[in-house]
Design a protein that fits this description.
The chain contains 14 helices and seven strands.
């Protein structure tokens, strides 16, 4: 995890750690709390925690603010950690923002929020006196690779380029597993070791889930083998239900059908016709033109048949239904040449 407490200087008055992945938020929060504890070498620093979402505890803002305004005893710093800041209602947010306008110098308030963007007023209030830490690694392979590379810099082991790429690809969306894998590698090989593919492969475990567009991109490229592989990672590592897979494919081909026969010629007009963002709208437009009307109709029929099959028309296991569907869709897609 990245360091957020200035070396050799006092910490900021407040921190907000947020993101969609509860594991990543928890890891970043733990690392930050450890950094703050390390500021007191005698171990006398006071750390108080409130609102554990795992125990379904209500956030008592009065207790939190009282703790923030109480001077630490026999220590220079009091750290107040709120693990479920997302549970604050509008009035509580206002009170917290009022406190952050004039925070106590001997208190560091640490807020954690999982799922969705935190309220802007809270983000701005923390940003004025402290640090806002977004744990989201990004949505594409390039962003995830950068995230992994950045976090490996602070790890006890080093990976060569091929090993880092393998680790990023293997983890997929399950980047919260990175810390555990790196810790295991450090214990096995020792801190400071430079590791390659052969050294890390035995420690990777099951492949993590992948994003839905990894599946649709593989299908659109006509790569049946890759599409089936990605599908199984979504079903196993990503724990997505076959009906969720089908819903993803319905949205994907529904956008193409809306563009079939449309006069859209660029990403802006395609976005207006489909309601998608410019980039996915551009991809939908290009694939719609590549497939043509007849193939789009055939693919839509396959989706409708799979929908009925998943709801009991035939006795196949749901995983087999979507596997056959993905294979047939990929077979209908024109295969794209791999870039050199």
């Amino acid at each position: 995890m990245s360091a957020h407490v200035p070396a050799g200087g006092p910490p900021r008055r407040a921190y907000l750690v947020h993101g969609d992945d509860a594991g990543l938020v928890s890891q970043e929060l733990s690392a930050l709390t450890d950094e703050l504890r390390a500021l007191d070498p005698d171990g006398l620093g006071v750390v108080e925690e409130y609102g554990d979402p795992g125990r379904d505890e209500a956030v008592e803002l009065g207790e939190i603010l009282n703790a923030c305004r109480t001077a630490p005893f026999f220590a220079a710093l009091r750290v107040v950690v709120v693990r479920d800041a997302k549970g604050l209602d509008t009035e509580q947010q206002k009170e917290l923002v009022a406190y952050l306008a004039d925070p106590v110098e001997t208190t560091v308030l640490v807020l954690a929020s999982t799922g969705g963007r935190p309220p802007k007023r809270l983000v701005d209030a923390v940003g004025n006196v402290g640090v806002v830490i977004a744990t989201a690694p990004g949505t594409n392979m390039r962003d995830r690779s950068k995230w992994v590379t950045d976090h490996l810099r602070g790890a006890g082991v080093r990976l060569d380029a091929a090993a880092a790429t393998l680790l990023t690809t293997h983890l997929g969306e399950d980047l919260s597993r990175l810390e555990g894998i790196v810790g295991t590698l450090g214990a096995a090989y020792g801190d400071g070791s430079l590791l390659g593919v052969e050294e890390i492969e035995p420690f990777l475990g099951e492949a993590g889930g992948v994003a839905p567009w990894d599946l649709t991109d593989a299908i659109d490229g006509g790569d049946m083998t890759k599409a089936i592989t990605v599908l199984h990672r979504m079903l196993d590592g990503g724990e997505r239900h076959p009906l969720q897979i089908l819903a993803t494919l319905h949205r994907h081909y529904g956008a193409m059908l809306r563009l079939d026969g449309e006069t859209a010629t660029d990403e802006q007009s395609a976005a207006a016709a489909t309601g998608l963002g410019p980039y996915p709208a551009k991809k939908a437009l290009q694939q719609s033109r590549r497939l043509g009307h007849d193939k789009l109709v055939a693919m839509t029929t396959l989706l409708a048949d799979a929908d009925l099959d998943l709801r009991g028309r035939i006795g196949w296991p749901p995983e087999l239904v979507v596997e056959v569907l993905v294979g047939r869709l990929a077979r209908l897609s024109p295969r794209t040449r791999a870039r050199r």
